[in-house]
Structure formats: structure tokens, C-alpha cells
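Here is my example:
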Amino acid sequence: MNKTVLKKNNFSVEDIHKLREYHCEKTKNLSTEERIKEISDSAKRVKGDTEKARKKKIAI
């Protein structure tokens, strides 16, 4: 399954369903430890993106 990323400002319920399906397929065979690592890695990535966005907004 292809990675789905919601980058547009307007997205539909169908887009959200596709994203949830992608995530389910990606994580369905993971062990508990692998799932925790996946969540932790994703959280770190989002935190970094958020910090970059805040710095960019402050610089403007």
C-alpha cells in the first residue's frame, strides 16, 4: 500500500479513511515493542516538524 500523506488544507472523509487503512495495514503485524517504537518515532518526527514550523513562523 502506498504511503498517504495529507498535505492539503481541505481533505475529505474518504482521505481520512485511506490514511487509517494505510496505518492499519502498516501496523497490523507489528509486535507490541515494534508498535511502541513506531509511535515514538512518529511522535519525534511530528515534534521536530512542529518546532521547525514555529521557528519559521517566528522568523517571518
In short: The radius of gyration is 15 Å.
